[in-house]
Amino acid sequence: MTRNVSHMIRAVCASVALVVCVAIAPLGTAQNAAPAKAQPTAQPPAGRPQPAAKRVSLQITVVKIKPDMLDQWLDFQKNETIPMLKKAGIKSRDAWQTAVFGEGFMYGFVTPIETFTQFDGDAPAVRALGADGARAYGEKNRRFIESTRTYLEQSRPDLSYDVKMTAPPKLAMLSSIQMVPGKAAGISDDRWDRIWRSWLLSICRPR
Fold it and tell me: Does domain 2-30+54-204 have CATH number 3.30.70.100?
């Protein structure tokens, strides 16, 4: 899952860019996994098309922190939030912050959604801290927050391509595209995907 998330971040961060920034830098993760050793990949027989990569759902939370509370909030995340998430069973959380361009004091958190049943029952803070502890955690957390929004996004492997990386990216440049109303009339979703995929890969794939 760790490898998949690293690829999906590139596809899904465009949605975060709509409200966060143009360029972002990684902040950290709730759980650092040891780099997995490369495993040999079985090649499909010649002439047989490879199966389409599975789309993966992600939860994206974007928060804006009160400037005068930033240092305290960072300590709160490291010393209270991350331990709470680990205790609640949250396997990973990627954290990003605005860098170079975009609105300041904005942070984005990306968490894989393995199944929607994970949202059933108590919230992570309640599972980890109990009802009273979760209430105290929430009261403390609210002191730092100016605004927060949470999204559900899906990866698009068919609009992506792999780039071999030896380490996580230090900076990500994001672009968001919104179609002009009326321009998509009469164009099916499948045809639009083909047009977009052809244009994207033609200009972005390393040569």
Answer: yes
Residue found under tokens 């984005």: 108
Alpha-carbon distance 191 to 173, whole Å?
27
Q: pLDDT tens digit string along 130-185?
A: 999 999 999 999 999 999 999 898 887 877 777 777 887 777 776 666 666 665 55
Residue 186, sorted as left (phi over 0), alpha (psi -120 to 50) or beta, turns out to be left
Torsion of CA 200, 202, 205, 207, to 10 degrees: -170
- Domain boundaries, given as residue ranges, for the chain: 2-30+54-204
- pTM value is 0.65
Quick check: helix, strand or coil at residue 108?
strand
Could you tell me what percentage of the chain is helix, strand and coil, using 3-state DSSP and rounding each to the nearest 5? 40, 20, 40
